[in-house]
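Hi L., both proteins are below.
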Amino acid sequence: MNETLDKIRRKEARENEILKHTRFHWLKNYSDLSQKERDRLMSVKSLDLQTSHAYHFKIPLQRLWQVNASIAEEYLRKWISWASRSRMPDIIKLGKPMKRHIDGILEAIGSGINSAVVEGLNNKFRTAFK
């Protein structure tokens, strides 16, 4: 999602100076932002920008990892449906592979395994077989 959000921001920043120097405001977790960064994000987010609209897709997708596993499938399917109707080509494009890989995503949520664990295992295997 962050890659898609940044792609949208970069396109829009070419025409809109207000988005310059805001990259990490959009990409960081809100809780990790300083108060100054939060204020800046809130002032820009309230504008009618494609980047702001894309950010509104990021937040619920982040919450997916916090919802109960029993409702995760319904939650993800609703997010994918919402993304497919967004009229934002980059968001629609993001939703398509998520729909194809929904079972794997739900398995990751249910097992609690995230990419950090997988990358750690990959690194162990790489060094073991060198």
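That was the first. Here is the second:
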Amino acid sequence: MYIGGMSNNYTIPVSNIGRVTPVNTDNTVDSSSKVKATTECSTCENRKYVDGSNESDVSFKTPGVIKPEEAYAKVSAHERQHVANAIAKGNKPGAKLISATVSLKMSTCPECGRNYVAGGLTKTAISYSESNPYEKNRKSVEGSILAGSFIDKAV
């Protein structure tokens, strides 16, 4: 899930995202070319997004349609929900948020060629103090499960 340090040094009008306008050699708009209509194709119109995390308090737990021009804002807001949850967990006694990184996945519609935000991923790292007995037990169980699972047999 993605939340990140996006720079506000430039703005792109949402209506122009994913569209290319032909230009002449002198950088004037080529009016002789036929530009594809801006109506949505059936693929973009029916594209659904769903959250795959185990956090029950975030959006898109059930599949929902997002228009391509709204995808960046809605996916970014969704990823901010994951970061807010990580911050809340990191602020609890005995816990410390180490990092939270967000990335957005971009894609191109195969039908109309429009670029859109296809999804996001939030990665978090939280450190827990050893004074928490439940955390000690969890680490012990995880250690016994993971022991030997990363052996390189090709040596």
